[in-house]
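Late entry, evening session. Most of the bench is empty. Finally got around to the prediction I had been postponing all week. Sequence below, unchanged from the version circulated by S.P.
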Amino acid sequence: MPARPLQSTRSDQQEVTKILTAFRRDPSLLGYISLGEDGVLRSLTADRDVLDAAGLNPRLTKALPNRISPGFRGGFGEADGAKTLREQWFNPDKSMLPPPLTDKQKKTTRKMLKDNKEMLEGRMDNTSKE
């Protein structure tokens, strides 16, 4: 009999949300969330140092796309990060991580963040005057 496909449940999605909420993030806002082929979800800096990590079982890996932006790196529904050694969560093979941002990408992203901040502050000022 063939294996039943994994089903993502509401409780799985809530568990993923708890993990993501608790993750430490890159204070520069240039960081990245990455799901490795080993089933480990990692919070990375712009230079791809690991700030935080959690081994996801296959159910949580399947639930992840509903709780993270569409461009996340992943798609490893059968990987079982809960079986990955904790040491490897924080010291993965570099081939499992997205490449570090280049200086040009960092500069462009910082400018975009600054522009967005100024735009939002301008909107807030306009709203408070109404």
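Two things to note before I forget:
The two ends are 65 Å apart (CA to CA).
Confidence is low (pLDDT under 50) at residues 1-5.
Will write this up properly tomorrow.
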